[in-house]
Amino acid sequence: MIILLRNYTVAFFLTLISVLINHLLGFNTERHDIGEYARNGVTAIFWCSIFLTVVQVRAVTGQAHSFMHAFRNGSLYSVLYSASFSVFMVFYQHVVNPRFYPTYREFFEARLKAAQIAPDLVAIKMRQFDMNFNGDFPTYVLLFLYMAMGGVIMSAIAGALFRNPAKSKAANA
User: Fold this and answer.
1) Which of 48, 71, 118, 136 could pair covalently with 159 via S-S, beta carbons 3.0-4.6 A apart?
2) Is 85 in contact with 15 (CB distance < 8 Å)?
3) What is the rounded distance in angstroms from the CA atom of residue 79 to the CA atom of residue 31?
């Protein structure tokens, strides 16, 4: 549990730094063309920290490490991180950068119009965009669910990759 909390603290701190650097460089207000790629750093930090946590817990637990043990720890980590990140994004979008949604919406709509997509398809894409970024409560619930589900999937992959092979072979014998 100490490893989980330590890794969560480090990963969340790196996430905060990543978001603030993106903000200071204007990637969340003026340069959305770069920002839509730069914001993926948060996901990379999150997924790498899941794998790192599973590997470090495996090193400590040794023979007791199984797929379910890794999956449980990774899932708990994912839910904790996702909840914290969602709460931080509420603060960021409403207090630090209230211009994020309107400027990103303009950028996204201009990009759709430049692609010369049919108007009904543009309307559908804009409804999806609004659902994901408008800053209402359901937006943050979706953010939490998407991140937590992605983290649980990564936990399953990490659990399968880093289970204790000695225990698995002993169980098959």
Assistant:
1) 71
2) yes
3) 31
